[in-house]
């Protein structure tokens, strides 16, 4: 079931991020041709750049809306029904973008990208929750790490599909944009054969027999009473626990530094430069001095590098810990961006400098995949109690999708104005965040939620020793991050 969830989950995000790169030149030409046919004169270059940046960034606006409604829809209808309906939305969005060239309407690209964003915003939290709830305790850490693997796999598949010999040509680029409907169709056809999440059936529907049947279908025949008892304990805990709202979480002093950390981590993921490199890989490599015919193949090497890095991350995260991967990863990425700036500045001096730029870009993506990409996902869950996770994830989702929109909108203008110095902005963010994480984020490896909370209480209340938690957050269970 993990491949079924992955192909309709985070795979879609990675696929969307990478394929938009390979359609950039064709979509710009299509917008210019359509404008010329409608109004009799070519579109101004600044207006063309603005429409293209909106085509990229409107995906983030849709994602923001989709993620905002995911919690309500999940509780009301269940994860399985939400995913099935979400696949229909993605298929409709793919059809709209696919027919844009025939209809001679670049507005259809905007509408389709917006709908794809809504679908992606819904599927990502659904994927995270669903894959965690269907997994036995001993495999939960591994299955959760597959979300980043499918994310990178989506990027790699999108880059392969975007090659000129496949769907990245002048005549087939609408099919490339519409191909996001194929993974959605696969999940739509296969998911009905799998059960709903067992915790949802027991905790929200009160269907104990349905829960047992789902567990047997997922894990095979055997004695699974211990897992059912765990779900019952969680249900009892939920009755005595008040789920905080976003405003209540922001006002609660006991979670102040946890909130600071989630804001810093979410903002840094968006402002570290990784999205800018994937959204505008062609522009970045053009600035590095490469021939346009070679850029598509070089972009493919970037995606494949991150895919291999995410595999490595899942094997070392429990050895090195989250804090080392985050702070060390940020500092190395910042240094690599400084190197990229230097090599691009010197590309006219030496013929081999563009290849140095490419190597540094690949290293940048590898370090991101090995370190911050996987560690950030773990930290989000580990530093918050059950009562705080829904609003904390809501804040994180808003920041993530807002970052996608801002970077998608502004980066082409930043490149045009600052040229090869554009990465210095991201470098400053990385070094600053690395210092903050090193100084203030406690290591969570192998610690229970109680131990992690005590570490944060030293920051939240400074010299005051706090041994109890707020009344609304009382929980009589221990959550351990060790597999």
Your description of this structure?
The chain is mostly helical and 483 residues long. It has 24 helices and no strands. It has helices at 2-7, 10-22, 24-39, 45-77, 79-98, 100-103, 107-133, 140-161, 173-178, 181-190, 198-203, 208-219, 225-239, 246-251, 256-271, 274-279, 281-287, 292-320, 322-345, 353-370, 372-382, 389-418, 423-440, 449-460.
Offer a few descriptive terms.
single chain, 483 residues, mainly alpha
Kindly summarize this structure in a few lines.
With 483 residues, this protein is mainly α. The chain has 24 helices and no strands.
Secondary structure elements and pairings:
Layout: H1 2-7, H2 10-22, H3 24-39, H4 45-77, H5 79-98, H6 100-103, H7 107-133, H8 140-161, H9 173-178, H10 181-190, H11 198-203, H12 208-219, H13 225-239, H14 246-251, H15 256-271, H16 274-279, H17 281-287, H18 292-320, H19 322-345, H20 353-370, H21 372-382, H22 389-418, H23 423-440, H24 449-460
